[in-house]
Amino acid sequence: MSNARRSRADLDLLMRRLGRDLALDFRGPAGWWEEGDLATGSRAGRQDLAVVQDLDAADQMLITRLKTRKGELAALGHPEYGSRHHELLGEPNTERTRNLIKLHVLECYSHEPRVAKVLDCRVTSDERHRDTVRIVMSIRLIDKDEPRNLVLPFALDVGAAP
User: Fold this and answer.
1) What is the pLDDT of residue 20?
2) CA 157, CA 162: separation in Å to the nearest integer?
3) What is the pTM of this model?
4) The dihedral of CA 131, 140, 16, 71: what is its sign?
5) Model pLDDT for residues 73-129, shown as the tens digit of each residue
6) Fold of the domain built from segment(s) 8-155
7) Which H or E element spans position 36?
């Protein structure tokens, strides 16, 4: 859609496409999106499960799709959901490994119907942690003009600490 003023129906359709989901609380180190668990919130004075929607739901979708190992949800009918970059755990932080991570990231998002286009994907070394890379992405969602920009760290060494 263009930057022209959108009708209420257009906005409703966009929000339905971006979705609504149970909110995840990532308790791992800040910015690593690890150890996700269902978030809770207070509603009408009672504790309840929290919900994300619109762009927050889209960001959560992009993160969880990449953080999920491909095939992990096959038994639930989603064999293409997730990424294969986890298969590179233990590999050295070389240009070849970073290129393979990028390939797996692009393949992962090619199966997501809410992603219109991956505008940019770079996998760079983390100067502070030699066994960690940063996946830097700019992704255009369907019906959105502004891209979502995300940076996700990925530790090649299982014991690597952020």
Assistant:
1) 65
2) 11
3) 0.72
4) negative
5) 999 999 999 999 999 999 999 999 999 999 999 999 999 988 999 999 999 998 888
6) Nuclear Transport Factor 2; Chain: A, (3.10.450)
7) strand 36-38
CB atoms within 10 A of CB 49: 11
Give me the amino acid identity at 103: L
| Burial of 15 (C-beta count, 10 Å sphere; 0-12/13-18/19+) | middle
Query: How long, in residues, is the chain?
Result: 162
